[in-house]
Each structure stands twice: as structure tokens, then as C-alpha cells.
Amino acid sequence: MAAALQAVRGMNDVLPDEAAVWQRFEDTARNVFERYGYRNLRVPVVEPTPLFVRGIGAHTDVVEHEMYTFEDKLNGESLTLRPEATAGIVRAAIEHHLTYERPQRIWTAGPMFRHERPQKGRYRQFHQLDVEALGFPGPDVDAEQIVMLARLWRALGLDGITLSINSIGDPAERRLHREALIAHFARHADMLDADSQRRLHANPLRILDSKHPPLQDVIAAAPRLVDQLGDASRAHFDALRALLDDAGIAYSVDARLVRGLDYYNRTVFEWVTGALGAQGTVAGGGRYDGLFEELGGKPTPACGFAIGVERMILLLEAQGKARAAAPDAYVVHAGDKAGAVARHVAETLRDHGASVVLHAGGGSFKSQMKKADASGARLAIIVGDDEAAAGTVAIKHLREGGDQVAVPLADVVARFAALNTGKDEYGSL
Ligand code: HAM
């Protein structure tokens, strides 16, 4: 026998039982995004490597250590599996002049790739739902995205996801702050670990993220950008806070919140759960007013975020909300005439929007009823030759018990609708 092959480490299959939870989550999210006028855009999974180097920043962890980069041997081009979606969306917006006439609210979904050490909630192929508002100076749209996420958590029935926000200012403010940080950390150079030493001049902001224990006091005493914002950035941040207060959204200002990608300015935010251990950030994003120019486009203010789908599924499971959509009905049938009636009834109900599994493969009524039960369907529709001869079917509610009822074929659609109750929906959007 040939040796069986396995999936690449950190890249997972999503089997049908779990995929049903994914689909339900994605449907709910898509529904929420569309209620706010966000429209779908799809970009390639592979992009030219310089897009990410320029967009995300050469000194970020993602670009330095985590990209799947390879040479296209047919033409020598350096290509990269996308580690995130924002850079590709901005490239597409520039390439197709998307924001030429009006700003755009965009969402996309799909796999991203980062060569990280796999653990619970962290994978090498993972999935994001990504949302971008292109051409909006904010802060109204910054607040809108946060409010939209709060609605999504509500619709999914999730709680305990807390919001941190911060402002990391504009480039000039960041330069000043950067110099202040370098001076501060240089005064404590003997305390810096190797990573932080390397970052001291390249990316001192990232030193604030260091988990190196001896460095924590030095980090705590470092100058805070949020205390040194210029007037425009300060006004932007204050207005964002007022909008969140007005919407009744609870948040904390975390002056240490710096995101791992270089394109951000002003607003940054993260939603975090304590239920998943170390990988508790389920969504993160912020404003990136300079990225269009960085990638060769016209100045275009923008703001966005991404949700980590695997982490959302883990959280839905942890909070008992990982419900999969089940079929409305499972049709069992045995006997020559019964097969034709069963096929007809299944098609008719599908015409009326029901999801109906028609038993295939034969077998006794008893074994078919077991399969009906295991399918999670709410109703079983039972057709034997007796029913077929009488022009009826029997309908039985599999979740709420009770007797089966005989229903004339002409009444099946109406009776089915009346009996198809107890649908296990998420809360209202
Ligand atoms: P990010 O913070 O790098 O931001 O990723 C967003 C989310 O993706 C994280 O909060 C996490 O839930 C999930 N995630 C990231 N890496 C992994 C991984 N290795 N395994 C599983 N989940 C992961 C961005 O990617 C930005 N593009 C978001 C954005 C959009 N900013 C503006 N627009």
C-alpha cells in the first residue's frame, strides 16, 4: 500500500461538521456587513512580494519571518502567499481606480498564510473576514466599524469580548515619539534583549510589545504617544471616543496597543477574549491613511479590520454557540411507488425554499429513520407504498416528539411550513 500523505503542518482541513459552523458564522457576518453597505471584493491569494514588503513594512515580524515567498520558476518573479488582505485590496483599488468617484466600503474573506509556530488559535494557513472602508477620513467610519463588530458579537450570542483602542498618531508625531522612544530605550540599553536591540533603531515601537521580563519596568516608563498627539490626531481620537460613548460601546484606551503591521496611523483597535489563552485577539484593525501613497496611489484615507475565523469558531465552541445549520427535513421512503412520490415531495419543498435531504441507498424504514435523526433535520417525511397509494405522506417532528401526522399531497407545503418550527437561529442582527 502506498504511504498516506498528510496536510502541511499548521494548515488544517475543515471537515463537514465543523464547516457547517464556519458557514453559519460567515453567513451571519456577511449579513451584518451588508447591512452597513459593505460590498464584497475578491483579490488573489498570491501577490508580488514587494506589495507586502512595502505595504506591511520590511521590519515587521510578518515580512521578516513569516511570509511564504517563492520564485515563480517560469519567469523568475518573486511571489508571496498573502499574509493578510489589506495590501492586496489597496493594490486592487489603485489598479482599478475604485475610489476615483466615491469612497468604497469593502469586505473580503479567505485564507491567509503566515509561517508562525502553530498552536491553539495560531496556524500557518488561517482565515480572515476582512473589512475595509476606502476613501473615508473618519472618525465616523472608524466608529462605524467598531459598532458593526459589536453587532456581530451580539448576533452570534457571544459575550466577554473586550475592546481596546489607541491612537498611534500621524507620521510626524510618530517620528517625534520614535526619537523619544529611542532615547528612552538607549538610556536602558543594558536591559534590552537581542530582539529589542535589533529593533532599537529599526522599529522601536515594537519594543513596547516585548515580553522580556526585565524590560517591563522600562517599557512602563516609556513616553506614551497618546499623550503627545498633535491637535488633528487628538481631535480625531476624541471624536472617535465620543461616537463610541454615544453608541454605548464599552472600551478601554490602551496606550501600549501597537499593531504588528507598519501601515497604521491614528486609530488602532483590538477585540480580545480571555477564553482562548494566548491567542485571544479575535479581531484587530485601524486606520491606514498612508498606505495608498506607499503603494503608488493617490492619497486616500482608509480604515479597516480583520476577524480571525478559526479563533471565532473556537470561541463559539467555548461559549456553546457553535451551532450548525441542520436540514429542514429528511425524506425516508421504501417501496417502488414511494420513491417517485418521495422525489416529487422533496423537489416541491425545495421549490418553496426548504433544505431537504432525500434518503439515498435504500434500507429498512428503521435504518433510514436513524439516519434522519443523525442528520439533525427537524422533520422526517415518511413515504411507504401505503402512503403512495393513498396520496399522502407522513410527517414527524424529530426534535419536539409527538405523533406522525398523515398529510394529503396537496397540503404538504402548507402543513410542512406549519410544522417546521423550532429553527435554531442566532439572535437577531
Ligand atoms: P492582524 O492583527 O495581523 O491584522 O490579523 C487580524 C486577525 O487575524 C488577528 O486578530 C487574528 O484573529 C487573526 N490571525 C492573525 N494571524 C493568525 C494566525 N497565524 N492564525 C490564526 N489567526 C490569525 C491584519 O491582518 C490586518 N490586515 C487587519 C486590517 C484590515 N487592518 C486594516 N484593515
Question: Could you explain the architecture of this structure?
Answer:
The chain has 429 residues and is of the alpha+beta class. It has 2 domains: 244 residues, BirA Bifunctional Protein, domain 2 (2-Layer Sandwich); 89 residues, Rossmann fold. The chain is built from 15 helices and 16 strands. Strands 1-5-6-11-10-9-7-8 form an 8-stranded mixed sheet, sandwiched between helices. Strand 12, helix 12 and strand 13 form a beta-alpha-beta unit. The radius of gyration is 27 Å and the shape is elongated. The two termini are 52 Å apart. The structure holds histidyl-adenosine monophosphate. The site of histidyl-adenosine monophosphate has 27 residues, from strand 6, strand 10, strand 11 and helix 11.
The portion of residues assigned to helices is: 25-40%
- Provide the β-strand percentage band: 15-25%
Low-confidence blocks of residues: none
Structural class: alpha+beta
CATH superfamily of the largest domain: Bira Bifunctional Protein, Domain 2
Provide the spatial order of strands within the biggest beta sheet.
Answer: 1-5-6-11-10-9-7-8
Distance between the termini: 52 Å
Overall number of strands: 16
Q: Work out the helix count.
A: 15
> Mind telling me which CATH architecture of the largest domain this is?
2-Layer Sandwich
Which keywords apply here?
429 residues, alpha+beta, BirA Bifunctional Protein, domain 2, eight-stranded mixed β-sheet, five-stranded mixed β-sheet, 15 helices, 38% helix, elongated
Protein topology:
Elements: H1 16-35, E1 39-40, E2 46-48, H2 49-56, H3 61-66, E3 68-72, E4 77-81, H4 86-95, E5 104-113, E6 125-134, H5 140-156, E7 161-167, H6 171-187, H7 194-202, H8 216-220, H9 231-246, E8 252-253, E9 265-273, E10 281-287, H10 291-294, E11 302-308, H11 309-318, E12 329-333, H12 336-351, E13 356-358, H13 365-374, E14 379-383, H14 385-390, E15 392-397, E16 405-408, H15 412-419
Parallel strand pairs: 1-5, 7-8, 12-13, 12-14
Antiparallel strand pairs: 2-4, 3-4, 5-6, 6-11, 7-9, 9-10, 10-11, 14-15, 15-16
Helix pairs in contact: 1-5, 5-9
Bound molecules: histidyl-adenosine monophosphate.
